[in-house]
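seq:
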Amino acid sequence: MNIDKKALLQLYGKEKQSVREIGLLLGKSPTQISRYLAKFQITARPFSTKGLQPWLGKHHTEDTKAKLRKQHLGKKLSPAHRAKVIKTLSSYKDQTGDKNPSWKGGRTYNSEGYIWIKLPQHPNCNKQGYYQEHRLVMEKYIGRYLIKGEFVHHKNGIRDDNRIENLELMNTIRHNGRTKCPYCHKEFLIH
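struct:
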């Protein structure tokens, strides 16, 4: 069958067939049929949810509810197997921090390239107990904790190069606003 305006008006307009049904009949995809409808300026019918929500307004029988409940309960473990599972899970509690075989010394990188150290006793650590290494190096160098508004700038721009020679302590006034880096000579606008 040829795809022309008359055929589409007959199938889509008068016989009320869906775009999918017309596509199957003519050997075309629903997208192609939709494009032909737009090309021939045939107004699309409102979207139908017919067949998309088969359980709308219906309820399970009590027998079906009981079967579903039983499936969701899961299998019962034998007492011996249950004891073995509990023993295995409880052994992992003792493998936190440096006792864990995957422990890498408490150092990790974040997505911005900064190194974070596991220091749960530090007063400014995050919720996971990590603190930024460059701030820690600067605190050890000046002999006190950094206060709000003090920033540690990497002179060479390499965020994991935390040598004290590469770090510079800055305050909010100098760090915010338009700043020109004396090393790379780029100008930055910091909010």
